Amino acid sequence: LFAQMDLCIEAFGTSKQKRALNSRRMNAVGNDILNTAVTKAAADIIDAKGVTALIQDVAQDDVQNISIFLPPCNEDADKPENVYKFEDILSPAEYEALQVPAAVFVNMTSEEITKKTEDKSHCSFVLEELKFLPADEKRRDHKARCLWFLDTLIKFSYLKVIKKKHPMGPECPHIISRKLMKNFTSLTYNNGSVQNLISASMKTKITAYVIALALHINNFQTDLTVLQNDMKLQESK
């Protein structure tokens, strides 16, 4: 069975799967007779199922894996804002809860923004966008809420193991803390206790949501370099 999977990985696997397969083969003791027999068995299975069906299986797996990390995607969207809907990033209840903590952004003066830039108390993306808050009260409040949550999401990505019930501080609404813990951490067991961990895959998920939210904030054009620096990601990532 493993050899059959190897043959499928070799033909249709991801780069990561192929690297793992090559590494395992290099460390394995070769057996030409067995390899020949297994290769024939795997080829028979491929012939029986069909290459098209196998490719469809792999494609479906890829879609399922990607969907774990991205916000729900509407492939039939008629305009950019409907591809990754705002409500799938922030629910109405979560959005409502952001009004109080985001008020500090709404009323921030240019002098305060300059001081916070020097202190690096907020992400570069957020500090730059605070300079261009709309004059209209409703739009100003909306952008402030989005920026506050984006700033919190990026800072949350810096953590490793979550040891506090409210890791982002008392000013973070309970519903937002619960969202962060539920959607952007993995459960792990350590010394007999359950811990919430921000794994590499969870940081990938956070990155995807940060980009989607940044696109909503910036009318669907944004500078990924700024976000990359804020999230402390390597360029290759």
From TrEMBL:
**Could you confirm whether the keyword Transcription appears in this record?**
yes
Q: Which UniProt keywords apply?
A: DNA-directed RNA polymerase, Nucleus, Transcription
Among the GO molecular function terms of this UniProt record, one is: DNA binding
- Localization annotation: Nucleus, Nucleolus
Aminoacyl-tRNA synthetase: present as a keyword of the record?
Answer: no
Q: Which InterPro entries match?
A: RNA_pol-assoc_fac_A49-like
According to its UniProt record, where is this protein mainly located?
A: nucleus
| GO cellular component assignments | DNA-directed RNA polymerase complex; nucleolus
GO BP annotations listed:
DNA-templated transcription
Would you identify the family this protein belongs to, as annotated? Belongs to the eukaryotic RPA49/POLR1E RNA polymerase subunit family.
PANTHER family assigned to the protein according to its UniProt record, in alphabetical order: DNA-DIRECTED RNA POLYMERASE I SUBUNIT RPA49
* Protein's name according to its UniProt entry: RPA49 polymerase
| Species assigned in the record | Sula dactylatra (Masked booby)
The coding gene here is Polr1e
